[in-house]
UniProtKB/TrEMBL annotation:
It catalyses: L-threonylcarbamoyladenylate + adenosine(37) in tRNA = N(6)-L-threonylcarbamoyladenosine(37) in tRNA + AMP + H(+). Fe cation binds at residues 111, 115, 300. It is an enzyme of class 2 (transferase). This is tRNA N6-adenosine threonylcarbamoyltransferase. Residues 24-307 form the Gcp-like domain. Substrate binds at residues 134-138, 167, 180, 184, 272.
Length: 331
């Protein structure tokens, strides 16, 4: 079965084709970073308009790269939520129209399911069950994944998501949007241990997370530091260390609590090298394997949606021709 996947939940237009036999046939991405950079964050209306402009050409480009005619597709998957309502509607409308025109089934996929299944596209995919750390701009969750569609929430952020904390802290440090990768770059120049921020919610049992207090601690330190470049790099380093160590402690607890020896790290923050290195150590100490999507599939992309949609369509799941989007949608 060959499934076209469409991702438009935020500021990336992603399209891919996944084939049940041959794997990923092609994927294309248009990032809107340049569109939103001047505003310091994603402007929802501009995001929707850009998806409208980009999506159909990107679908054609992806099909050409896969060497497929539209009629050779067996189904269409799209991100149904969570995300920006207008942006989601563009993907949903295009996907549904294509499915209608081609007389193929369409399926709305949960964006976070896409993220947590993304490591299945790699050469050494994890087997079920696994523990997944989902860390993106909108979510920070630990999930026990028993199978496709069988998810148990182990813990989640009670306030800001990890990516959101990276973005807000980057902004406080005067770094351009998107903040996460910029902050990581600055943190590399910082001296480890010169500053220290708290590891929130690690002093009590449990797997929930919290990052808003950390942001406040950074704010106070930034105010004191003024614009001394060395101190700003040290702040970035101390912030990243605090987030990484907090996530490492919670992942260790999740591996211990579940007894499952496989850890998956997904979502945009999973692109962070310091986090990857630290979690590799944690997993190794537990005799657990750790699985990441390739860097390009940590952040939003069409491939993860094509894959998740393929799993569901191949299992016989079907939806009626009417559609809606679900901007807020628990996993
Ligand atoms: O998964 P994603 O592309 O979009 C959402 O579904 O939210 O994640 C985007 C988030 C942003 O907050 C971004 O700053 C963060 O992932 N991010 C990073 C890095 N690359 C992206 N955070 C820390 N270090 C990075 N290298
Ligand atoms: Zn995402």
């Amino acid at each position: 079965m060959r499934v076209l996947g469409i991702e438009t939940s935020c500021d990336e237009t992603g399209v891919a084709v996944y084939d049940g036999g041959a794997g990923l046939l092609a994927h294309r991405l248009h990032s809107q970073v340049a569109t939103h950079a001047g505003y310091g964050g994603v402007v929802p209306e501009l995001a929707s308009r850009d998806h409208v402009r980009r999506l159909m050409p990107l679908v054609q480009e992806t099909l050409a790269a896969a060497g497929l005619a539209p009629g050779e597709l067996d189904g269409i998957a799209y991100t149904r939520g969570p995300g920006l309502a207008g942006a989601l509607l563009v993907g949903a409308a295009v996907a549904r129209s294509l499915a209608w025109g081609l007389e193929r089934p369409a399926i709305g996929v949960h964006h976070m399911e896409g993220h947590l299944l993304a490591p299945m596209l790699e050469p050494d995919p994890p087997s079920f069950p696994f523990v997944a750390l989902l860390v993106s701009g909108g979510h920070s969750q630990l999930v026990l994944v028993a199978d496709v569609g069988r998810y148990r929430l182990l813990g989640e952020s009670v306030d800001d998501a990890a990516g959101e904390a990276f973005d807000k802290t980057a902004k406080l440090l005067g770094l351009p949007y998107p903040g996460g990768p910029e902050l990581e770059r600055l943190a590399r120049k910082g001296t480890p241990g010169r500053l220290r921020f708290p590891r929130p919610m690690t002093d009590r049992p449990g797997l929930d997370l919290s990052f808003s207090g950390l942001k406040t601690a950074v704010l106070n330190t930034v105010r004191e530091a003024g614009d001394d470049p060395r101190t700003r790099a040290d702040i970035a380093r101390a912030f990243q260390d605090a987030v990484v160590e907090t996530l490492a402690i919670k992942c260790r607890r999740a591996l211990e609590a579940t007894g499952v020896p496989r850890l998956v790290v997904a979502g945009g923050v999973g692109a962070n090298t310091a986090l990857r290195e630290r979690l590799a150590e944690v997993a190794a100490r537990h005799g657990a394997s750790v699985h990441y999507p390739r860097l390009a599939f940590c952040t939003d992309n069409g491939a993860m949606i094509a894959y998740a949609g393929h799993c569901r369509l191949a299992a016989g799941e079907r939806q009626g021709p009417d559609f809606d989007v679900t901007p807020r949608w628990p996993l």
